Each structure stands twice: as structure tokens, then as C-alpha cells.
């Protein structure tokens, strides 16, 4: 059904020679990340050494995966590329559009009614272009990829930032925008700045209450939300090899939360076990034969300080369970310090809901460990104090845990099992109906990866803390944020003091995985006769028109649209939640453009000055007024602008509405690339303090845009309302082919031209 063993054997067949050549060029032993990168060059056998953090390199990924929310726009774009079939194995996964409200069955039925138009579109485009289709309810993209497609030493891209999850099986797997996926699906090279390398040495072994999740929560504490930017994190050491493959997946998954390009682990027996358990003995055998290529050269892990740009060491013997949050995944609190931290910060101690599962933490191991705690509820005469929900990552996991009695255990504590989908992790959780925006201040704990404001339930007053599934379960039993299961006792129904026993579980199901209908639909051999129909009156889908190039003339008299204050993630630029329904309709979804960003001049969201009238209006309204008047605009932002997801809508929407440039202190990598792909200007302040010069009524002239060239700064004349001007210098990272994207209006326009 799933993987392509011949493709994998082909990758392995060429690895040895390519790695040997790279080793000679670099002149030293290689890390695992370097081996994978150098053996996936577009040019084939390497001919030169690349500079980390400097050189743009063309790669040839082995696979592409798309989730339903981003696949719509990616496939709408691919339809313009003029190709009869995708050039590399590609899959589409329906997981983001299923709202969690009642239970799996009811919610899936409703999603199939409300989003049938989108699912039908994705299925027919998949069928036409040779793409594997995972229907709604089949599972979450990253869990399904880990179970079916990931393989040690491979390289893949996916239109979702948590594609990095596949690093758990020793891949270099990278989250990209749909436009990048279109390049690879169309048989073109995929370009990436050669990443820097961060080594994480894990000494000791996990035990007791500490889980793989705590490793990445600690890494997030050390690196912060942007500390991994532009780097691949490579984990090694005794703590790495002694951990399960799915545990490695959890750690790699949340590498996205430190901004890392991706994370990976060297091949070991846990990967062999996982491949065999998921019915891929032939991949396991093939990997075993080339295992020396699937991990770093010996000296790298013996003397890591010589090979990595940054080295972190974590001792798993002393690592405590952590809870990270609220509102940012890098605010880490060891559980023993939570009582103090909660008091200091006035975090509500009562935990209303505990949620486990998601692509981050829904392995058999996670669920069995959580279930071992849920079992203790009745055994110890306790009651689950918080609501408790489970979102399994795939039908295979769900079917197996049902067979093994864990679903019954969860039912026994009154838990709700949601559909095998993203649900609460992406704001598709109907917790408050239409009252979410005014929801009460409250605390939830979950085992997902992100906890930005409104991310789970749309309520800005929900404080979400991220922890391991076992810690989330224990806290849900206690109902308190400051409950430390390592040391605290609970009072049971008989008034006795009891302690929870340490969680226990199985790395893999003792009886093996099982599933009746995994939810996969293979495409037709010849899909040329398949008709893809998009209604012109649809509110969910809209065929695309190519973007018109931004002329140098239109870059004079540019108005400020908004200067966001503080964090401006892709959620602020293009909100998820209810807006997910418009992901395939550019004009409709553009009505959410930047509505979550805080205006630096009045500290309000979605309330900016329309310079043409002087009135304060919603951001999309102001932007549509400028568009109508034929005036281009600019967005000015702070550090790490566009962090969060790979969603290209955050670039396409402003582009569609007429924003020409985004000028910030620094960018999140994927978003910067997405802006470039859509033919916009992605610029950074040469002098960060110039950010403070930008005023609400400013007009901008790109005085030397005619000289736009790689490595050359641009000059921006800022004209203030009183007529005074400031000339500021701005940097960019465009290379010549990216400048071509700008000149042609978009990267897709360039592909089309080349295919014409
Ligand atoms: Fe879905 Fe959440 Fe995983 Fe994203 S992080 S794929 S929204 S479960």
C-alpha cells in the first residue's frame, strides 16, 4: 500500500559513494545530517563542499507529504505547473479539517458533510496526479508518515511544520510551504540554505515519570523558540539509543518549536524494531545493510565539540518531568517548581481539561503509559478531576489500542476519544461554541506541541501547558497544575492518601499492530481522464490566477499597513481555527489577514489606520482600500516574524491583497522563503533600531529597487507625516533565482514558464 521499497533501495545504493566523496571534499568525518544532505544533492554525487548557514543548495527529496489544509493551495498551484503526474512519491492526509466536539464517530460524520467538497477535491486531484490519498479519519499526517513512509537516511519535505517528526526514524524531514512542495512534485530541485548543526548529547537513560517529551521541553528551555533557527539538531548518546523510535519522533516533532530546520537521530535497533512492527521488514533489512551510512562517523559522537556549531548535553538520569507554557512552548517549568511558578505568575491552578494524543504524542507507547495511570483511577478509588480527551494519531494506533483494552480503560474514567485527527491541537475544538473569544480565564494541559494563545480552543484566556501524555494524565487525575506525581499524594474516595504508581507501557504492541481499514486510497495508474471540478460559486475552493509581478514604479509611495507589536506568528498573520475552512479559497481567507497581529501604535488587534481616510478599520478592510486605490503597502515587524507553521497562506494572502514588502528585525525561515516564492520583498533592518523610526502615517519609497541584486543592501526612504524623511538600509537574502521569482511575480510563474 504504502512505501516504495525500490525507491528506498535506490537511495541506499548511491549513498556509500556520495558520502565517501563528501567526506573527501569536507576533509573530515561526517555527521548524520551531513551524510543525508550530501547524499540528496540535486546534482547527485557531490562536487564541492558547502558552507553551513551560508550556501543555498539544491536538493532532491525522496518524498512529499501534504495535509488537507495546506494541500488545497499546494495542489491548486500544482495544477498550474503543467505536469501529468507528480515526480516523486507524494501523499495527501485529511486531518486538519475535522472538528472535535462530541466523539470520533459523530465528529467524523459531521466533517464528511461539512468539508466533503474539499475532501472530494483533494481525492480527485490525488487520483489524477498519482498521489496517495489518506481519507478523513485515517490519521494525522506525521503519525501516518512515521508508520508507513519514513525510513532511515531518507529526505522528505511536507507542507506542515511538524513534518520534522519523521526524524524519529532517522530522516531529514523538513516542513515547507506549498510552493516548495509544488517544486518537488513538479520534478524540480528544492532549495535550502545548508543548515548549521546543533548536537544534543543525551547521557543516562529515561526512567520513572520522565518521558521523551521532557527531553524536547528541556531543549526548548535551553534553545528558546528561535534558538534552532537555520540548524539541524542531531541527537546521539546512550540516552538516544535506549529510547523508543516513537519517543525520538516526539523529540523531533517539537524541534519545530525551537525553530530548527529539522532534527534527526542515527539509526539504531529501536528503528529496526519499529520498522518490523509496522510491517516493513524489507526496509529494515535494507537499512541494516547500509547502517554505517545511517549514523554519524565514529569520531563525531566521540568528539562532538569538533563537528557541531553548538553542543548541548542533557543527562536523562536527572531530567525532571516538565510543563512548558503558557502561551509559548519554551517557557519551561520542572514539575517540582510548578507550585512556586504558578503562585508567582498567578496561573489558575484548577486544570479544566487534560488532552493527550496528537501527532506529537500518540504512539502505542504513549497511550499505553497513559492508560496505566488511568487504570489506577478505579484501582485506587480516585476520580478523574479534569475532563480528559484522547486524539489517536492514526487508525492503526486507534484500532490496536481498542483491541488491547485501552479505550475501555479511558472510557472507564469518563474520557472522550476524538477522531484520529488534529482537532484540539489546531483550534478545531468546539469547546465554547461561538463564545470562544470571550471565554473565561482557565488552565488546560496537553501533550501537543504548540500552546500559542487561542491555539487549542480559540479562547485568548486559556492558559495551555505542554507536557508528556503521562504527566498530562496524572495532572488530569489530580485536577491541579501544581500536582507533582513524583512526590505528591492524592486523597481517594475513602479519604485515604494514595500515590500514583509510575507509568508503565509497551514500546510496541505485544500482539503486534492491527487495523481493518487504514484509510488509504491508491491513485489510478493513469489519471489523465479524471476530471477535477471546482465550482465558481464555491466558498471553500477557488482556482488560482497567476500573481502579476510587483513593478518598481509601484514600489514608490508605499503605505504602512501595520506595524505588529511583539510576536507575530503565522497564526497572527493567517489565523487557523474556523478560518481553516477557507484554506482553498484565497480571496475568502484573505479576510483574516493579520487580524491577530497587535498594532504597535494602539496595542489593539485588527484596528489600524487607513491612511487614505484617517479612519481606524480592520486590517483586511484597510488593505482592500489601498488595493482599490492601486497603492502597495508594507508590513513592518519585530524578531522571528512568521514563526510557527509553514502555512504559505501567511504569504499568499498579503500578496493577493497587494502587500508588496515585509520589513522585520528577523524572519522565521519558512515564512521568509514563502514570501520570496510569492514574489514579494522579504527584508530585514540593517540597523534594528530603525524599527523605532517607523510611524503610523509613513510612506515608503524603494529608491534603488532597480538595482535589486544578491548580497546588495537596498535603501528605503521613509517619509513621515510631517514631511521629514529617514533613509534606512535594509538587508535581504535573495539569490539570483529568487530575484527571478520576484521579477516574474512568483516562483510558480517561473516553473510555468520553464514548462511552457
Ligand atoms: Fe495536526 Fe497538531 Fe500535529 Fe499540526 S501539530 S499536524 S495540527 S496534530
Distinct small molecules: iron/sulfur cluster
The top level CATH class name of the domain at 553-755:
Alpha Beta
Helix-strand category: alpha/beta
Poorly predicted spans: none
Number of strands: 30
What CATH calls the topology of the domain at 553-755 is Aconitase, domain 4
Reading side by side through the largest sheet, how are the strands ordered? 22-25-26-27-30-29-28
The fraction of residues in strands falls at 15-25%
Mean pLDDT: 96
Major sheet summary line: 7 strands, mixed, barrel
Helix segment tally: 25
Helix content range:
25-40%
CATH architecture of the domain at 553-755: Alpha-Beta Barrel
In short:
Among the domains are: 322-498, Aconitase, domain 3 (2-Layer Sandwich); 553-755, Alpha-Beta Barrel (Aconitase, domain 4).
Q: What distinguishing features does this structure have?
A:
756 residues, alpha/beta, Aconitase, domain 3, Aconitase, domain 4, 7-stranded mixed beta barrel, globular, binds iron/sulfur cluster, iron
Task: Report what the structure shows.
- Pathway: Carbohydrate metabolism; tricarboxylic acid cycle; isocitrate from oxaloacetate: step 2/2.
- Helices cover 31% and strands 17% of the residues.
- With 756 residues, the chain is α/β, with parallel strands linked by helices.
- Among the domains are: 322-498, Aconitase, domain 3 (2-Layer Sandwich), CATH 3.30.499; 553-755, Alpha-Beta Barrel (Aconitase, domain 4), CATH 3.20.19.10.
- A 7-stranded mixed β-barrel has the order 22-25-26-27-30-29-28. Strands 6-5-2-3-4-21 form a 6-stranded mixed beta sheet, with helices on both faces.
- Helix 8 (212-223) runs parallel beside helix 10 (245-253) and helix 24 packs across helix 25 (747-755).
- Bound molecules: iron/sulfur cluster.
- Iron/sulfur cluster binds at residues 95, 140-142, 160, 162, 358-359, 422, 425-426, 448-449.
Amino acid at each position: 500500500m504504502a512505501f516504495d521499497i525500490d525507491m528506498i533501495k535506490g537511495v541506499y545504493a548511491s549513498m556509500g559513494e556520495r558520502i565517501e566523496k563528501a567526506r573527501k571534499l569536507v576533509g573530515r568525518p561526517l555527521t548524520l545530517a551531513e551524510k543525508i544532505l550530501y547524499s540528496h544533492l540535486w546534482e547527485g554525487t557531490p562536487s564541492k563542499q558547502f558552507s553551513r548557514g551560508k550556501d543555498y543548495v539544491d536538493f532532491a527529496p525522496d518524498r512529499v507529504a501534504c495535509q488537507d489544509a495546506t494541500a488545497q493551495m499546494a495542489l491548486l498551484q500544482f495544477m498550474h505547473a503543467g505536469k501529468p503526474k507528480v515526480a516523486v512519491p507524494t501523499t495527501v492526509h485529511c486531518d486538519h479539517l475535522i472538528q472535535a466536539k462530541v466523539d470520533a464517530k459523530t465528529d467524523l460524520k459531521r466533517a464528511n458533510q461539512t468539508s466533503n467538497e474539499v475532501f472530494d477535491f483533494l481525492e480527485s486531484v490525488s487520483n489524477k496526479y498519482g498521489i496517495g490519498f489518506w481519507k478523513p479519519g485515517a490519521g494525522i499526517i506525521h503519525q501516518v508518515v512515521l508508520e508507513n513512509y519514513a525510513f532511515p537516511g531518507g529526505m522528505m519535505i511536507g507542507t506542515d511544520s511538524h513534518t520534522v517528526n519523521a526524524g524519529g526514524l532517522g530522516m531529514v524531514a523538513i516542513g515547507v510551504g506549498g510552493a516548495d512542495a509544488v517544486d518537488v512534485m513538479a520534478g524540480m530541485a528544492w532549495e535550502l540554505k545548508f543548515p548549521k548543526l546543533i548536537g544534543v548529547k543525551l547521557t543516562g537513560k529515561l526512567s520513572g515519570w520522565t518521558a521523551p517529551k521532557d527531553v524536547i521541553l528541556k531543549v526548548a528551555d535551553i534553545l528558546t523558540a528561535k534558538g534552532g533557527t537555520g540548524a539541524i539538531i542531531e541527537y546521539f548518546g546512550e540516552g538516544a539509543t535506549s529510547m523508543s523510535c516513537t519517543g525520538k519522533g516526539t523529540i523531533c516533532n517539537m524541534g519545530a518549536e525551537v525553530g530548527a530546520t529539522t532534527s534527526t537521530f542515527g539509526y539504531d535497533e529501536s528503528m529496526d524494531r519499529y520498522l518490523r512492527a509496522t510491517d516493513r521488514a524489507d526496509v529494515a533489512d535494507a537499512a541494516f545493510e547500509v547502517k554505517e551510512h545511517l549514523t554519524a562517523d565514529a569520531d563525531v559522537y566521540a568528539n562532538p565539540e569538533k563537528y557541531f556549531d553548538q553542543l548541548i548535553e542533557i543527562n536523562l538520569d536527572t531530567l525532571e518531568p516538565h510543563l512548558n507554557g503558557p502561551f509559548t512552548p519554551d517557557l519551561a517549568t520542572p514539575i517540582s517548581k510548578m507550585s512556586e511558578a504558578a503562585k508567582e505568575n498567578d496561573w489558575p491552578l484548577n486544570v479544566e481539561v487534560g488532552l493527550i494524543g496528537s501527532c506529537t504524542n500518540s504512539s502505542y507507547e504513549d497511550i499505553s503509559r497513559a492508560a496505566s495511570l488511568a487504570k489506577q483511577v478505579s484501582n485506587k478509588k480516585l476520580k478523574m478531576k479534569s475532563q480528559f480527551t484522547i486524539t489517536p494519531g492514526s487508525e492503526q494506533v486507534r484500532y490496536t489500542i481498542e483491541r488491547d483494552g485501552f479505550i475501555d480503560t479511558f472510557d472507564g474514567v469518563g474520557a472522550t476519544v476524538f477522531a484520529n485527527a488534529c482537532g484540539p491541537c489546531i483550534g478545531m475544538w468546539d469547546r465554547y461554541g461561538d463564545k470562544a473569544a470571550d471565554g473565561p480565564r482557565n488552565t488546560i494541559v496537553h501533550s501537543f506541541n504548540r500552546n500559542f494563545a487561542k491555539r487549542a480552543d480559540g479562547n485568548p484566556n486559556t492558559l495551555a501547558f505542554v507536557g508528556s501524555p503521562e504527566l498530562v494524565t496524572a495532572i488530569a487525575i489530580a485536577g491541579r497544575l501544581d500536582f507533582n506525581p513524583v512526590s505528591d499524594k492524592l486523597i481517594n474516595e475513602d479519604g485515604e492518601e494514595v500515590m500514583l504508581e509510575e507509568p508503565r507501557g509497551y514500546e510496541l504492541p505485544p500482539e503486534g499492530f492491527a487495523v481493518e481499514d487504514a484509510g488509504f486510497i491508491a491513485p489510478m495508474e493513469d489519471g489523465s481522464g479524471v476530471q477535477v471540478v471546482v465550482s465558481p460559486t464555491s466558498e471553500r475552493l477557488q482556482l488560482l490566477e497567476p500573481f502579476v509581478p510587483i513593478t518598481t514604479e509601484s514600489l514608490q509611495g508605499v503605505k504602512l499597513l501595520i506595524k505588529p507589536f511583539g510576536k507575530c506568528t503565522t497564526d497572527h498573520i493567517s489565523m487557523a481555527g474556523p478560518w481553516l475552512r477557507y484554506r482553498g479559497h484565497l480571496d475568502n481567507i484573505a479576510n483574516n489577514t493579520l487580524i491577530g497581529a497587535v498594532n504597535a501604535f494602539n496595542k489593539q488587534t485588527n484596528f489600524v489606520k487607513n491612511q487614505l481616510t484617517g479612519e481606524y478599520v480592520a486590517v483586511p478592510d484597510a488593505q482592500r482600500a489601498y488595493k482599490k486605490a492601486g497603492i502597495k503597502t508594507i508590513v513592518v515587524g519585530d524578531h522571528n516574524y512568521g514563526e510557527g507553521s509553514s502555512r504559505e497562506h501567511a504569504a499568499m494572502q498579503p500578496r493577493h491583497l497587494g502587500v508588496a514588502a515585509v520589513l522585520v528585525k528577523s524572519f522565521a525561515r519558512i515564512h521568509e522563503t514563502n514570501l520570496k516564492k510569492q514574489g514579494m520583498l522579504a527584508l530585514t533592518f540593517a540597523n534594528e533600531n530603525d524599527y523605532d523610526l517607523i510611524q503610523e502615517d509613513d510612506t515608503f519609497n524603494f529608491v534603488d529597487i532597480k538595482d535589486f541584486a544578491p548580497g546588495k543592501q537596498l535603501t528605503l526612504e521613509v517619509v513621515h507625516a510631517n514631511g521629514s524623511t529617514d533613509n534606512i538600509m535594509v538587508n535581504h537574502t535573495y539569490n539570483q533565482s529568487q530575484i527571478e521569482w520576484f521579477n516574474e511575480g512568483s516562483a510558480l510563474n517561473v516553473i510555468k514558464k520553464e514548462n511552457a
